[in-house]
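Bump. Still looking for DUF2190 domain-containing protein C-alpha cells.
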Amino acid sequence: MPTIQSSYPARPAAAYEGMAADQDPATIVSRTVETTDGIAFGRAAFQGTRDDGIAAAGSVFRGIVLADRNARPNASGTDLFAKGETAPVMVRGTVWVVSATAANAGGPAYVTAAGAVTATASGNTLIPGALFDTSGSAGGLVRLRLN
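Sorry for the wait, here they are.
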C-alpha cells in the first residue's frame, strides 16, 4: 500500500473551514444535499426543492454546512457532502468560514451566488442576523456568528 502522508506539521491548524467555533449553544439540523456536485464544508446551504433538501445555490439561505471528518472521501479529494448525503447545517451558532473578501468583526455577512461568505453587500444576499465575529483578510478564516 502506498504512503498516504509522510510528513506532519509541528502543530495542527487552529481551525478549519466548517468547524464549529466554540461550545456555545448552537442549532444544527440535518439536510439532504440535492446539488449534483455536492456542497463543501463551510459553505452556504440554500433551500432545496424538497422540504428537507439543501442546494449549493439559491435564494433562501438555510445555514452553513459543518465539517464532518467521518464523511466519505470523494473522487475529487475535496471536503464535501455528495448529492444524496445527509449534511449537518448550522442555523444558529458560530462557525469558521473562509471569507471571500476582507471582513471586520461586528460587520454584516453576505453570501455570493456561488455560496461563498463575503463582507461585500453589492450583488450578494444578506445572511439574516449574521455577523463576523473576527476580522480577517480575503481568503482567510474568520468566525461567523449566525443569530
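The mean pLDDT is 91.

Edit: fixed formatting.
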